[in-house]
Design goal:
single chain; alpha+beta; 36% helix; four-stranded mixed β-sheet; 6 helices; elongated; 13% strand
């Protein structure tokens, strides 16, 4: 039996079964449980008299504040529309990679920025490619990728608002922020 014949036979066999009927609204109402018969709330968790209070988890805004710029990691700059840097900035990237390898507990955010020339969506995509290029460069220089986060900032965070070419060249950059990744020691007993 050919494949077409088998499919046709299957369709003909299933045809008498018909399609499923839609559920009528009245049936849905009949099957739901009334609000008075709702499941009881779970019992509260036990409170232990000698338990230390749970530590407050940092909010995303608070954790972002722990990342800071470092003098050892200067911004690297880009030509308009480019994602590669010139030799001077390659030397700065090599120095940044050496510093990050020498400080293995440091996590780094690589922020990509652009000037205000061009559409915002294109600038955001360009900022992401710049940040990703710098991240990839650092990884090729021995910095583990797990320690690096690439973020696109686009036109936000302008260093210079004037539309002159010299001013706008300052905005086309990748900026580094770092924080120590050493685990935080939490103690259940009060310190004395």
């Amino acid at each position: 039996m050919s494949r077409v014949a088998r499919v046709l036979a299957l369709v003909l066999a299933l045809l008498p079964l018909g399609c499923a009927r839609p559920i009528e609204p009245a049936r849905v109402a009949a099957v739901t449980t009334p609000p008075s018969a709702a499941a009881p709330a779970p019992p509260p968790a036990p409170a232990w008299p000698d338990a230390a209070p749970a530590p407050d988890l940092p909010t995303p805004e608070a954790s972002a504040e722990t990342f800071v710029a470092r003098e050892e990691l200067p911004d690297v700059h880009f030509a308009s529309g480019e994602i590669h840097v010139d030799r001077r900035d390659l030397a700065a990237l090599d120095a940044a990679a050496a510093w990050l390898r020498a400080n293995p507990s440091q996590l780094v955010i690589v922020e990509g920025y652009t000037d205000v020339i061009g559409p915002r969506a294109a600038n955001l995509a360009l900022a992401q490619r710049r940040a990703r290029w710098v991240m990839d460069y650092l990884v090729t220089r021995g910095v583990p990728a797990e320690r690096i986060t690439a973020v696109a900032r686009g036109e936000t965070g302008l260093l210079c608002a004037d539309r002159s070419p010299g001013c706008q060249s300052r905005n086309r950059r990748v900026h580094f922020l770092v924080r120590d990744s050493e685990p935080v020691q939490l103690s259940a007993s009060p310190s004395r």
